[in-house]
Amino acid sequence: MIDKVEALMRDAAARAILPRFRALQRHEIEEKSPGELVTAADREAEHIIAAGLKALRPAALVVGEEAAALDPGLLPKLLGEDEVWLIDPLDGTAHFAAGREPFAVMVALVRHRETVLSWMLDPVAGTIRVAERGAGAFADGARVRAASDCPPIQEMRGAILKRFLAPEDRARLEPREKMLKEVLPGLMCAGREYPAVVAGEQHFALFQRMLPWDHAPGVLFAEEAGAAARRLDGSAYVPGDLRPGLLVAQNNQVWRLVRETVLACFP
Questions:
Q1: What pTM was computed for the model?
Q2: Which residues lie across from 145 on neighbouring strands?
């Protein structure tokens, strides 16, 4: 099944996404909600992937980002006991619409409210990242592991995605950011942000908005690589739980240090 899902994603990228990269027509870009874009590539890719996943496991529900935008009632189904496919047909749509990278295609399989398989495809580079619960995380077939060291807080660099932070939270956080070597704005593409933490390009990332198709694939990849991805209260991430706040870090030691110092201003 792992190879079949990868083939579906590559087919969708080849047919719906890559031919439109830097070639989108104005009528192919819409604003589906304030500040949120959707393109013809998003919709066509989701259609291709959803049909293929339904054929693979007919009994499973399919919840795609664009389908959920039209029917928000799909999201609560993730908190049930049904097996659910999650699809992010084009993560990083704003980049794609502007003719730049990064962007990704992501799929996850959720069973009993737990992500058990995930795929993240970089359509331009062709890199596929796959994770299976209990079996590890892989990039193009090679196993990947996050670093186990924990540098001092003043040597750390990490992404703090502030777009969805409340103004009062930003104000509390700003003085504490000076503890870090560098605060990054974020890549606006979870399919690239999670691998960046695992690869050691940055030590952590703080997310606020918890749309499940953005995070279910990356959380499993991070955890299977030995990284840490938990709510700020230390609880596990659950797809479909939309409460804000998720800290992803290179390992448990980094997670605790960032939480207890920089993010100590959060309850």
A1: 0.96
A2: none
